[in-house]
């Protein structure tokens, strides 16, 4: 029986865990600045064709009451290179990690077996570099997750005002 692969197209679970760890570090700082308590934990992920691995998660509390948690979902996401979910008692929001300008449509013109022209068009406008993004559902516009957006989404999922 063959061992599961741990890397896919040059992308590994180690890179995903590093990205999640870095993001949770930023989120922890934003939460503490607003009087929230954060507690780190881990989740074991089992993705297809990859060895099982642990990724960090975060529990966010206010006055001893859990208001939300951030859980890693996986590194193998269609159109993205990772996903974490912000989950509260009201709803949830997905954050996707994009590299460069994000996913793109690519075309090639082949004449006589040779490529004569090729082009690439980003699928999403608003992705301007590596990072975690939230996609606004109504107009499908990605927004880079920063402190202000994170706090708005935390309010949305938890029904607490921050």
Question: Could you explain the architecture of this structure?
Answer:
The chain has 162 residues and is α+β, with helices and mostly antiparallel strands. Helices cover 20% and strands 45% of the residues. It has a single domain (7-99, 128-158), classed as 2-Layer Sandwich (Metal Transport, Frataxin, Chain A). A 7-stranded antiparallel sheet has the order 3-4-5-6-7-10-11, covered by helices on one side. A two-stranded antiparallel ribbon has the order 1-2. The protein is elongated, with a radius of gyration of 18 Å.
SSE topology sketch:
Layout: E1 7-8, E2 11-12, H1 13-33, E3 37-45, E4 53-62, E5 65-74, E6 83-88, E7 92-98, E8 104-111, E9 114-122, E10 131-136, E11 141-144, H2 147-158
Antiparallel strand pairs: 1-2, 3-4, 4-5, 5-6, 6-7, 7-10, 8-9, 10-11
């Amino acid at each position: 029986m063959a061992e599961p692969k741990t890397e896919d197209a040059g992308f590994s679970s180690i890179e995903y865990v590093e990205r999640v760890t870095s993001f949770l570090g930023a989120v922890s700082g934003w939460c503490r600045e607003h009087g929230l308590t954060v507690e780190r934990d881990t989740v074991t992920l089992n993705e297809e064709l990859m060895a099982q691995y642990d990724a960090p998660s975060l529990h966010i509390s206010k006055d001893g009451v859990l208001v939300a948690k951030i859980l890693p979902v996986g590194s193998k996401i269609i159109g993205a290179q990772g996903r974490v979910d912000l989950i509260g008692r009201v709803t949830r929001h997905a954050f996707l990690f994009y590299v460069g300008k994000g996913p793109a449509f690519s075309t090639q013109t082949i004449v006589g077996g040779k490529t004569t022209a090729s082009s690439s068009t980003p699928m999403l406008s608003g992705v301007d570099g590596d990072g975690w993004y939230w996609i606004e559902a109504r107009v499908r516009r990605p927004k880079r997750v920063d402190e202000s957006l994170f706090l708005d989404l935390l309010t949305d999922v938890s029904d607490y005002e921050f």
